[in-house]
Amino acid sequence: MKTLVLLFKKSNAPFLFLFFLSGICISCSNTPKIVVQDMTMVVPENNSVFNEELLPGEIADTKIEHIAYVGPTAQNLQFSKENVDMLVFIKGNGQLQNDTSLYQLVPESIAIPISSETVLIEVPQGEVLHFIKFTKKLSDQDLKDMEAFPAENKYDFYFTQFEDCESYTEKIKSPNTVSRTVLPANIIPRVSLGTVEAPGPDEVGAHKHGMLDQLFLGLATNDVVVHADGASAPFKEFSLLHIPIGSSHGVSVGDNKTMYYLWMDFFLTKEGQEWLKTHKPSSADKNEYPQDEDSQ
What we know:
Order of helices and strands: HHEEEEEEEEEEHEEEEEEEEEEEE
Number of helices: 3
Strand order of the largest sheet: 1-19-16-21-14-13-12-22
Strand content: 35-45%
Number of strands: 22
Radius of gyration: 22 Å
C-alpha cells in the first residue's frame, strides 16, 4: 500500500487514485447477478425446426434447449439412459407418440420419457410447437436412487398438464396465489417442478435456499420483477431466469399484470429435498406450516 501511495503522489494523478478506489468498491460488492435469457419465439422463415441453447453452464450437468417445430412436420427425438430429458411445452399444439401411447401436446404440459428411447412428435399445418428440453446427466447414485423409489413413483413415461396438478400453499405467498406441484420429488432424482400464479399487485416474499439450484421459466402472460439480495431484473413471458444460489430472493407483480412462472429445483443432494415439506397441500391446515425461515 505504501508503494501505491508513493506512486500516486509522484504521478500527481488524482484520477488514477479515484479509479483505484472505485475498483476496490466494485471488487467488494457481493450483489449477485440475476441471469435471464429471452427466447426467440419467432422462427426464421423457411425453417421447420429451430433450436437455441439457453443459459449454457448455469446448471451443473444440465443442457437446456428451446426447440420449435413448424407444422406440418414429424420429428423423432432420441434419448440416452445416461440422462433424463424433461420436455416442457409452452406454446402451440401437436401430438407425441411413444411405444405404447399417444399424447395430445398443449401449452403448459410436461412429458418425461423415463424408459422410452425415442418418441415421435407431430405438428399439424398452421401450428408452431415450442418446448424446452432439459437434459440432465444422471450420476451413478441417481441411477441407484431411481431403482429404490417406491413403486407408485416409478413411471415409464411421465405426462401431465399443469392445470391438472395438485395445488399447495405456503406462508410466503398470499391467499390469491395458486401454486401447483408439476413434478413431485422422487420421480426424477433431485429434481422437482411447480407453478406459481397470481394477479397483481402481489408478491412472493423474500426467502433463500442454499441446498438447490433454481430456474424460473416465464409462462404466457408472466410479467414480474425478480429480486435477489441487492439486484432486481424484469422477468417476462417465455424467458428463463437463474436464481443466484443461496441468495435471498422474491418476486413482485404490479397492478394489471400477472405472475405466472414454472420453478425448477435442482437439488445438490437427495437430502436437500426435505425442503419440499414446506409445501402444504391446499386442503391442509394453513396454520401447520413449519417454522423454517426459508421457503420455496
